[in-house]
Specification:
Elements: H1 6-13, E1 18-19, E2 26-33, E3 36-43, E4 48-55, E5 63-67, E6 73-77, E7 83-87, E8 107-110, E9 116-119
Antiparallel strand pairs: 1-2, 2-3, 3-4, 4-5, 6-7, 7-8, 8-9
Length: 120
Amino acid sequence: MLQWDQYEFIECLEVLPEVDEEHETNHIFRVEKDGLKFILTIYQYSGDIYFDLFRDGLEEPIFTMKLLDCPAARYISTKNKSEWLEFAPSKSFGGRYDGESPIPMGVRLAVKPHIRIELF
């Protein structure tokens, strides 16, 4: 199960998710900026995260990635007003993640001022 805070995702991405109404098993966040559309799909119970980035006018994504069995994601906000979401890769902690410690490797997602995806 993914450890995350839905409200921090809403704060960072500045959009409300589409939520599976019957079982609330997935959340889909759609962000559109600068001719790009980013779709983040979260399956909170399995911990599967899907990243899809589209360019206007193209049917297929220009970037797609899956994180399977992601244990945790956290919101980072710095003093200089930078903010992003960090996603931990599967089994990188060897145990439960406390939600506070720095994530040593994974994926960062930012949407301000532009959509940015970074592997670290």
